[in-house]
Amino acid sequence: HAKHLGGSCFQFYSAELPARNTDRLRLENELRKAIAEGQLQIHYQPKLHLASGTIGSAEALVRWQHPTRGMLLPGEFITIAEETGLILTLGEQVLRLACVQASQWLHKGPMAVRVAVNMSVQQLRQPQLATQVEDVLRTTGLPASLLELELTESMLLEHSDTVEANIAALQKLGVELSVDDFGTGYSSLAYLKRFPIHSLKIDRTFINELDEQPRDAAIVRAIIAMAHSMNLRVVAEGVEQQSQLSFLRNQGCDEVQGFLISKPVSASAFTRLLESRLYSSATEAP
Ligand code: C2E
Ligand code: MG
Ligand code: MG
Ligand code: MG
């Protein structure tokens, strides 16, 4: 009987857990509603092509216009979306919205811009992913070459037949693939020779302290050299300072992305950015 005194522990936790669970449950239900009712929006952040001064692509970053809490960033809801499986419908919606927008830029102007969409590992594990992407491209009228998918290193190390088949099928469609947050995942580079990757995005943790940390500079230099010798494009993310931009330019980095160039902005603000001719697009209309 005395053993059941351990039940007091249960008492302690049960006082805490329900509150947290109801918070999570509320967030989950709100997110489900948000996806169904179109509260999700996409902001776009340019990747600037340094050699030409043109916009190489626009990264689509999801935002949630919450009815009472204002604009929420992915950090506040992507984890719950992953945990509840809602990431699949969220991801498909983001893909569709981004392709609709890129198709408008292509067909209505001001110009063709490639759009880069972040993928969740759960999307890559769906056997029908390539069919879904193909359908989105067909219904939005966007050429596959104007869609780029950002994957992370861990996704490329899954060793799953479905993931490998998806990557091969996406490559066959003509979609571009890039490795996001490069350098932070795993030390394995083996996937670079197995998969049809087009570009590497150096993680912003290597860019942050480029001026103060000689080792960061060495890593960035090495990534650029390796990528170029493999005919991959290199993008640096999180560029905030002119000194970082100069270093990257000197090292031959192809594209830069970060607050120094532009924060992520609404579709209409991005359209104005394109119209301003401050940056013209790097992508010829196909
Ligand atoms: P990410 O793909 O690595 O995107 C870059 C993040 O860094 C974005 O944050 C962007 O706003 C931020 N950023 C860009 N330039 C700078 C800079 O100069 N300095 C600093 N400090 N930050 C900068 P955001 O929009 O909050 O997105 C965070 C992450 O959420 C993304 O990281 C991506 O992993 C994920 N995410 C965003 N949208 C989606 C989506 O539609 N689907 C999925 N699965 N994940 C998404
Ligand atoms: Mg990304
Ligand atoms: Mg990134
Ligand atoms: Mg990142």
Would you kindly provide a written description of the structure presented here, covering whatever features stand out?
An 8-stranded mixed beta barrel has the order 1-2-4-5-6-7-8-9, surrounded by 5 helices. The chain is α/β, with parallel strands linked by helices. Helix 5 packs parallel to helix 7. It is globular and about 50 Å long. It has 12 helices and 10 strands. The longest helix is centred in the first third of the chain and has 31 residues, at 7-37. Strand 8, helix 11 and strand 9 (255-256) form a beta-alpha-beta unit. It binds ligand C2E and magnesium ion (3 copies). One magnesium ion (MG) is lined by residues 59, 118, 150, 180.
Write a concise keyword list for the protein shown above.
286 residues, alpha/beta, eight-stranded mixed beta barrel, 12 helices, 20% strand, globular, disordered N terminus, binds ligand C2E, binds magnesium ion, cyclic-guanylate-specific phosphodiesterase
